[in-house]
């Protein structure tokens, strides 16, 4: 029994530590985060976001301001060429007509030149794609824009599918990571108290 209790407390502590390290960011009434998951398909990313509960879904980017925020605050600042992070739109039902999973209008876009191109007739899923480009000063820098990609991008091209971006309305938030840390601390103190009582 003592061993099971120790394992339970250790597991909870690890879960709390993972939550504390998980830092979502807020903008305009919504919370955003990045989930790193090498090789994940768009379909699995979409399912995983919904399975999380709490109102999470694959991010829906509907304005330049929202795009600039996500690029600056959620996507990694530097990454290898052709890194992709899935977001919540696809044109699987009607080629060329992208729709957001939330039903919001697809009025804003941030495509790379020549995209979307439905290469091979299988590129139906939307992702941020990092590519190097030359800026106006002649310097090469990494930029994030959109690309249509096949669902199995990570299996076809190793290193291309790196994860996905999630979003939810702030009103759907679960307890803040700080609250989870306090819960973990309280359970740790409870465990220490029980150990003292059983030894004494």
In words, what does this structure look like?
This protein has a single domain, classed as Roll (Mannose-Binding Protein A, Chain A), CATH 3.10.100. The chain contains five helices and eight strands. The chain has helices at 2-21, 42-51, 64-73, 153-156, 177-199, and strands at residues 25-27, 30-36, 57-58, 84-90, 99-100, 125-134, 140-149, 161-169. Strands 1, 2, 3, 4, 5, 6, 7 and 8 form an eight-stranded mixed β-sheet that branches. α1 (2-21) packs antiparallel against α5 (177-199). The relative contact order is 0.22.
Based on the model shown, name its key terms.
34% helix, 200 residues, eight-stranded mixed beta sheet, Mannose-Binding Protein A, Chain A, alpha+beta, globular, single chain
What string, H for helix and E for strand, traces the elements in order?
A: HEEHEHEEEEHEH
Give the quaternary arrangement of the chains.
single chain
How helical, in percent, are the residues? Answer: 25-40%
Structural class: alpha+beta
Instruction: Report the sheet with the most strands, covering strand number, pairing sense and barrel closure.
Output: 8 strands, mixed
Mean pLDDT: 81
β-sheet strand percentage = 25-35%
CATH class: Alpha Beta
Termini gap: 18 Å
Count of discrete alpha- or pi-helical segments spanning 4 or more residues:
5
Which homologous superfamily in CATH is the superfamily? Mannose-Binding Protein A, subunit A
CATH topology: Mannose-Binding Protein A, Chain A
Spatial shape: globular
Q: Provide the number of structural domains.
A: 1
Quantity of strands, as a count = 8
- CATH structural architecture: Roll
Cα-based radius of gyration, to the nearest Å? 21 Å
Low-confidence stretches: 3-22, 173-195
């Amino acid at each position: 029994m003592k061993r099971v209790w120790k394992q339970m407390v250790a597991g909870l502590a690890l879960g709390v530590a993972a939550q504390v390290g998980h830092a979502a960011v807020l903008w305009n009434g919504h919370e955003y985060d990045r989930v790193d998951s090498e090789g994940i398909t768009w379909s699995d990313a979409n399912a995983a976001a919904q399975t999380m509960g709490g109102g999470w879904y694959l991010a829906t980017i509907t304005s330049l301001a929202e795009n600039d925020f996500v690029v600056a605050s959620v996507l990694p600042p530097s990454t290898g060429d052709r890194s992709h992070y899935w977001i919540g739109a696809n044109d699987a039902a009607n080629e060329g007509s992208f729709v957001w999973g939330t039903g919001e209008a697809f009025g804003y876009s941030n495509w790379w030149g020549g995209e979307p191109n439905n290469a091979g007739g299988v590129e139906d899923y939307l992702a941020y794609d990092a590519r190097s480009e030359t800026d106006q000063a002649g310097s090469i820098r990494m930029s994030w824009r959109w690309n249509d990609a096949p669902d199995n991008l990570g299996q076809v091209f190793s290193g291309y599918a790196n994860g996905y971006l999630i979003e939810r309305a702030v009103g759907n938030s679960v307890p803040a990571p700080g609250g989870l840390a306090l819960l973990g601390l309280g359970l740790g103190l409870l465990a220490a108290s029980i150990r003292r009582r059983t030894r004494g």
